[in-house]
Amino acid sequence: MRRLVVILSSLFFFTSLVVDGGPVPFDVGVVLDMGSWTAKMSRSCMSVAIDDFYSVHGDYRTRLALHYVDSGENVVGAASAAVDLLKSKQVHAIIGPQTSSQAVFVSDLGNRSQVPIVSFSATCPSLSSPDNPYFVRTVLSDSLQADAIAAIASAFKWRQLVPIYEDSDYGSGFMPYFVDALRAVDARVPYRCVIPLSASDDRILEELYRLMTMQTRVFVVHASTSLGSRIFAKAAEVGMMSEGYAWVMTTGMTSLLGSVDAAVVEKSMQGVLGLKAYVPTQTSGFRNFRKAWKREYLKEYPDSDVPELSIVGLRAYDTVWALATAAEKIGGLGSGFKSSSSNYSTDLSSLPVSSSGPNLLNELLKTEFNGLGGKFRLVDRQLALSAFQIVNVIGDGERRIGFWTPAQGLLRHLDRSIGGRAYSASKDDLSPVIWPGDSTVVPKDWAPPTSGKKLRLAVPGPVPQGFNSFLQVDWDPFTKGPVVGGFVIDLFEAAVEQLPYAIEYEYVPFEDANHTSLGNYDKLTYSVFNKEYDGAVADITIRANRSNYVDFTLPYTDSSVSMVVLLQEQNTKSAWTFLKPLTTDLWAASTAFFVYTGFVVWVIEHRINEQFRGPPTQQLGTVFYFTFSTLVFAHTERVVSNLSRVVVIVWVFVVLILTSSYTASLTSMLTVKQLQPTVTSVEQLKANGHYVGYLHHSFVLGLLKKSGFEESKLRSYKSPDEYAEALKNGSRNGGVSAIVDETPYIRLLLSRYCGNFTMVGPIYKAGGFGFAFPKGSPLVPDLSRAILNVTEGDRMVDIERRWFSDESACSDQSNTITSNRLSMASFWGLFLITGIASAAALITFIALFVYQNRQVMKEAKSEGSTLRGLSMMVKRFDEKDPSAHTFRRTETKGEGGTPVVPRSVDASPLRVFDCSGGEGGADVVTARPSSDDVFASPGNDIVGVARSDSGVARGLEMTVVRW
Hints:
The protein is α/β, with parallel strands linked by helices. The protein has 29 helices and 34 strands. Residues about 1-20, about 810-820 and about 890-963 have low confidence and may be disordered.
């Protein structure tokens, strides 16, 4: 029933169309190079698109009417065809033209007439500028693939790539984006190879031979299929498609690889990488379209071979669907043009203006659907990118090795479910590649030039005597050639041996025919910048101003500038030498803790120890004598409290360490020769007006001037011997008070004059020594890695031992300028420990004392006098503690265990109390005559006595024990 309703509805609709005159035609012009196979494929695809679209949308009231015009494969023909379509056909839109060069002119016509120009093959990025508001690109812009090529370069560690592109808008428009993308991944374009579209084979060979003489081995071809296939054929002819080379094709050629002669692909393009837009071809809709397209192609071109369907045809198909959808949304508008006042079809000044163009453009930009070429969505008037395929040309076809997306980078498999994956630019995310020459080894981006030309490496002219350990440059009297050597040369040659390839080079002294130096190291590096040399091998300091002109390898020496001064003996032996081992703050801290510890011990021991009691002067002397006698562990006072024992044990440990350190320091001062530098800082040199020396032609002169030294106070020298002589003479005798130079040179000086001088610093920062090469030289990263391998291995030790053998015999003088005095910084931890121990013991004692005598404070508070309570507490503290074990005698017992109480010396009146009802119970105790609350009888009568907490004896019954 439902099917019947649909059939009846369709019959009714078509009947209404017949009555109303049928669908409204929507005229659209198509400008193509009809003689090309691309145009033939595109035209047949658009014919299939018309049939497919309106078979699905049979109820639409508009229908595209395509008017095909041949551009004649030139810019003028394309512009003329567009003008004719606008004036004679009054088309609402123009599909095409086919190339970017043609689109530049046609897009301007679209702007004037407000007619959308929709191209499915013009990929030049500049066409989508704001100056062309009516140009719509239904194909990916070339700018989008620049980042993909940069990711491939990063994955294979290529830092320089040479583009080979055609001399056209299509070729040149891609370059700015390509260069910027490479710069973002720390790669560069050292040379651009531009080939005209009409170039002969000889011209192509000439460019390829020029590339062979260069060091770069990675090339990116951005050209049409006709020119690109010729470039690859000639590259194979000259041997540039062999092992060690890498070639990458952009989408323009990779997408149309099926149109390239199979013989060229099999013989000249093996191992080439290519980019092409990703198209989901494993769908039933795509398979059905392929069959329909082949039938249509054979119907239109029965005498032609059916080419391989490319992405260009799919973009043409989707373009028709997008225009048909937009046309239906704005409806049938008739001509929609303002009439032209000119009768000439080619008059550009009087083009008609479309009234439907703005609406059509807006609807077209909003159109979205899933087309044959993937998701159709326009962003900034051009097709949005989904993903690029990366293919490897193998045999007569291609093999996919991975994908690239803007969000995820390189992918081996396109999985939409891993949207949160981090961006990757690793070759591990690609399938293995077969490179030119059937090689599986990733080609280097640089190799030695094949022309046999040696690298000319500049070395300094005559080297100052005394610094030959770093660099030696002489002339052989027989061969008349330079003879170089030294630490720098050995290190460079060791690094070259670590390179994964061999290079040929020669040393060229930086001097004239008379063997006179041509200048300092600034001029040497500038000559490398001017391409007078291929590099410079010397002890060149890496400086910011020099790095503006050349690239430096990683430094192979220390990066600092230091100062060397004369050492003088300091006479420290005097009557007060014994005070010098400790600094003032340590003396003060030690004295304070001596007093503090003695006070703590006195407080704890005062009530229970007879040795810490007596008159105030006696107690004060005991405190000081006890603590200071611990210095020699001669204290005789016996401490009886566990709290004070803890304090003393910790304090004796501190005293042991302190006295041991003091003894060692004093011994060193009295027995070891004390050497001190004559100058210790740059500020001291400037304040006292001392003379300062530096190496002739060194950048250190600029540093000293910048630091505030007067040029009249600066003197230059050329050798370590001159350094030593100037330092010995001093500023007052025509010498200097200090030499400021780079640390490696100063170490060389110290190794020769061990014990006379010392190094102070570093006082300035520097970049260290490095080798200089022209900007962008591929040798720099490779040599830097090689230098790291050498400096981290045993080879560096051997080189240093060979050229600086004397340096190991002299100790590092920079470590001798240290003070033998002991400061608080070395002992504050010990003082902290003893302070905490003493404080804890004191607080514990006070807490116990207050708790035991809390009744006194209670009675004082009950009387309303806190001061009286404190006074009573102080008085109680000054009294002996009768309950302490130190004030009790050992009791004796008679036969049968009966306690024997000695007879009291004091014959007091007999008062017997039984304290069984009081606190503590009734006990028989031994009493002293001086006790106020204990009584005894003068006879043989033994009585029991006791004392209450309040000190008042209360008795109930008499208990008499007779012995």
